[in-house]
Amino acid sequence: MDSFGGHCSLNSKRRSQTMALRPTGSSEFSSAELPLDEPLSLMANEVAWGRFEAIEQFCRDNQLIFVRWAGACAGSFGPERVVFDGIAETTFAVTDDDEVMISRDDVRRLGSIASIEAYFAAADLTVPPLVIVDGILPDGGDHG
Fold first, then answer.
1. 16, 31, 116, 132, 144 from 19: Cα distances, Å
2. How would you write the pLDDT of the chain (144 residues) with one tens digit per residue?
3. Secondary element (H or E) of residue 106
4. Helix or strand or coil: residue 102?
5. N or C end of the chain, less CB within 10 A?
6. What CA–CA distance (Å, rounded) separates 11 from 9?
7. Pick from 42, 35, 101: which is nearest to 66 by CA?
């Protein structure tokens, strides 16, 4: 298993989903650690494949937007940016400085400047601010 650094930004508008975001084996986030008016950003070194697998799956299951960048591991895999827009996940090839790259095959597949621009725009998805609200949760409970 290769390990390298990773960075993940995510958002939520439902308290139940936000409060459930706790790294395995770690203490809970305190409210003082949660950002005001910006996405929650998680960073780690020596992360297997640069993925935050449990958190990313939680986001997919609950349609929470996230963007993850992971650096390369020489001889194994290149750097990547993964964008989940709440519906679909797309992986983009990037440089070690997180600059989106596009191949000749991608240019041919996309076929037009407008499509290429849309591709870059999708890669640059802005993760909305983290918003925690009280109230009734999807499970019907009131945890506020």
1. 5, 10, 37, 9, 11
2. 333 344 455 543 333 333 334 444 555 666 677 777 778 777 777 666 677 788 888 888 888 888 888 888 788 788 889 999 989 999 999 998 889 999 999 999 999 999 999 999 999 998 888 776 665 555 555 544
3. helix 104-110
4. coil
5. N
6. 7
7. 42
> The tokens 């895999």 sit on which residue?
77
Interatomic CA distance for residues 88 and 51, integer angstroms: 17
Q: CA angle, corner 39, sides to 61 and 37, nearest 5?
A: 130
SS3 48: strand
pTM: 0.70
Cβ neighbors of 88 (< 8 A, separation 6 or more) are none
φ/ψ region of 140 (left if φ > 0, alpha if ψ in -120 to 50, else beta) reads left
138: Cβ contacts below 8 Å, ≥ 6 apart: 14, 16
Q: Please give the DSSP secondary-structure letter assigned to residue 94.
A: B
Would you state the structure tokens that stand for residue 68, as one six-digit string? Answer: 């993850």
